[in-house]
Write a structure and sequence with these properties.
By secondary structure, this protein is mainly α. It has 3 domains: 110 residues, P-loop containing nucleotide triphosphate hydrolases (Rossmann fold); 74 residues, Helicase, Ruva Protein, domain 3 (Orthogonal Bundle), CATH 1.10.8; 73 residues, Arc Repressor Mutant, subunit A (Orthogonal Bundle). The chain is built from 12 helices and 7 strands. The strands form 3 sheets. Strands 1-2-5 form a 3-stranded parallel sheet. Strands 3-4 form a two-stranded antiparallel ribbon. A hairpin with an 8-residue loop joins β3 and β4. The longest helix has 23 residues.
Length: 279
C-alpha cells in the first residue's frame, strides 16, 4: 500500500465550484485578501498535505488557473491569495476528466504543458458497454444505494427487468445507469422493479438525426453542430428534471446527481427559471 494511504484524501468536483471562488478554495487565502476574508483560510491543497488530492473534471478549470496549477506541480508549493510568501506542500495529484484534453489543447482551452506534466500515468476507463457483463452487479449496487438515499422500501429486479439494460448503448456510461436505476426506484410502487420501470431513451423527447440534418440544410462546422445539439439536450434534460421535481432545485439536484450549485450554474447559463415549474 501507498505510504499516503492513511493520509488525507481530498476530492474536488471542479465544475461545482464557481470560477471566481475556485482559486481561493484550492490554494486558500490570507486575512484581508478580499472583502469578507476576516481570517486565514487553508485551501484544499493545504488540507491534502501529505496525502492526495483528486481534481475531478480538470478539463473545466479556467486557463488562467491552469497556469497556477502548473506551478504547484513544478515547484510543489502554493501561494494563498493575499499572501506574501509561498508554502511548500507534499501532495499527490490525481486528475480525472471525461473531456478530450488533446482536442481542448488544439482549441486553446487547456494548456499543453500542464497536460504533459499531469500525464505521468494515464488510466483509460472502459465504457459501460465494454463491460456489459458487470451490468447486473452494478444495477444491484445502485438499487441498494438509491433505496437508502431515497428511504425507499426494499426492492428487487424481476427476471425481465435487466434485459433492456443489455440492449442499451449507454452513451452516459455508469452515471446514466445509476440514474436509470434511481428513476426505476422512484417510479415503481411495489417491491419488484419490472421492465416497464426501466426508462431508457424515453425520458427525453426523441429526435431523428435524419430529420434534424436535412440534405438542404447548410452544413456548419462539427464543433458548432455538436455544441448546438448539446445545448438542446441540456435544456430538455433540465426542463424535464424541474418538471418532475415541481421546480424544487434541491430535489432536482439529487435526482440528477449534480450538486445544487452545479445545477444552478447550468440553469443560469440557459436562463431557466425554476419557479415556472412550480405547481
Amino acid at each position: 500500500l501507498s505510504n499516503r494511504s492513511t493520509k488525507p484524501f481530498i476530492m474536488v468536483n471542479c465544475p461545482a465550484i464557481p470560477e471566481n471562488l475556485l482559486e481561493s478554495e484550492l490554494f486558500g487565502y490570507s486575512k484581508g485578501a478580499f472583502t469578507g476574508a476576516d481570517k486565514n483560510h487553508a485551501g484544499l491543497f493545504s488540507q491534502a498535505d501529505g496525502g492526495t488530492i483528486c481534481l475531478d473534471e480538470i478539463g473545466d478549470i479556467p486557463v488562467n488557473l491552469q497556469i497556477k496549477l502548473l506551478r504547484v506541480l513544478q515547484e510543489q508549493e502554493i501561494k494563498p491569495l493575499g499572501a506574501d510568501t509561498s508554502n511548500k506542500i507534499d501532495v499527490r495529484i490525481i486528475a480525472s476528466t471525461n473531456a478530450d484534453l488533446e482536442t481542448k489543447i488544439t482549441e486553446g482551452k487547456f494548456r499543453e504543458d500542464l497536460y504533459y506534466r499531469l500525464e505521468v500515468l494515464t488510466l483509460h476507463m472502459p465504457s459501460l458497454i465494454e463491460i456489459a457483463e458487470d451490468i447486473p452487479l452494478l444495477a444491484n449496487y445502485f438499487l441498494k444505494k438509491a433505496g437508502a438515499e431515497l428511504k425507499s422500501s426494499k426492492k428487487s429486479f424481476s427476471e425481465a427487468a435487466l434485459d433492456p439494460l443489455f440492449k442499451h448503448n449507454w452513451p452516459g456510461n455508469i452515471r446514466e445507469l445509476q440514474n436509470v436505476i434511481r428513476r426505476a426506484v422512484l417510479f415503481s410502487s411495489g417491491s419488484v422493479i419490472d421492465e416497464q420501470h426501466m426508462r431508457l431513451g424515453s425520458s427525453l423527447p426523441a429526435s431523428d438525426p435524419a430529420e434534424d440534418l436535412e440534405t438542404d440544410t447548410e452544413i456548419v462546422p462539427y464543433k458548432e453542430a455538436k455544441e448546438s445539439c448539446l445545448d438542446s439536450f441540456t435544456r430538455q434534460y433540465v426542463h424535464l428534471l424541474l418538471k418532475q421535481s415541481n421546480g424544487n432545485v434541491s430535489q432536482a439536484a439529487r435526482l440528477s446527481h449534480l450538486t445544487r450549485a452545479a445545477l444552478q450554474k447550468i440553469m443560469r447559463r440557459y436562463d431557466i427559471d425554476g419557479d415556472q415549474f412550480r405547481k
